[in-house]
Amino acid sequence: MHDNERSEIVFEIKEQIGVIKPYPTGWNKELNLVSWNGNPVKYDIRDWDPEHEHMSRGITLHPDEMRKIVQLLKDRQV
Fold first, then answer.
1. What's the structural domain count of the chain?
2. How confident is the model at residue 9, as a pLDDT?
3. Is residue 70 part of a domain?
4. Which of 44, 61, 62, 69 could cross-link with 34 by S-S, CB 3.0 to 4.6 Å?
5. Which residue ranges does the record assign to the Transcriptional coactivator p15 (PC4) C-terminal domain (predicted)?
């Protein structure tokens, strides 16, 4: 493999938690639990096509990071 070749990214959606925003194109911004390249699951927020074959760039969060975000949002709701 040459340095400029990218290896294939392998993913498995372990749990579809929910749709954050549906788009008229059929794509959805979703919150899921995803395993990337066989690693432990992370919370994942990104846009997906209806078949979950194509995706946009997104953000992945370790479970402790997601807990912190949830706590920050709860604390803000004073």
1. 1
2. 87
3. yes
4. 44
5. 25-71
Contacts of 52 (CB under 8 A, 6+ apart): 13
The phi-psi region of residue 14 (left if phi > 0; otherwise alpha if psi is between -120 and 50; otherwise beta) is alpha
Please list the pLDDT of the chain residue by residue as tens digits (78 residues).
455 556 788 999 999 999 999 999 999 999 999 999 999 999 999 999 999 999 999 999 999 999 999 999 999 976
The boundaries of the domain holding residue 15 are: 11-76
Between the alpha carbon of residue 14 and those of residues 1, 17, 20, the distances in Å are 30, 9, 17
In a domain, 62, yes or no: yes
DSSP state of 4: T
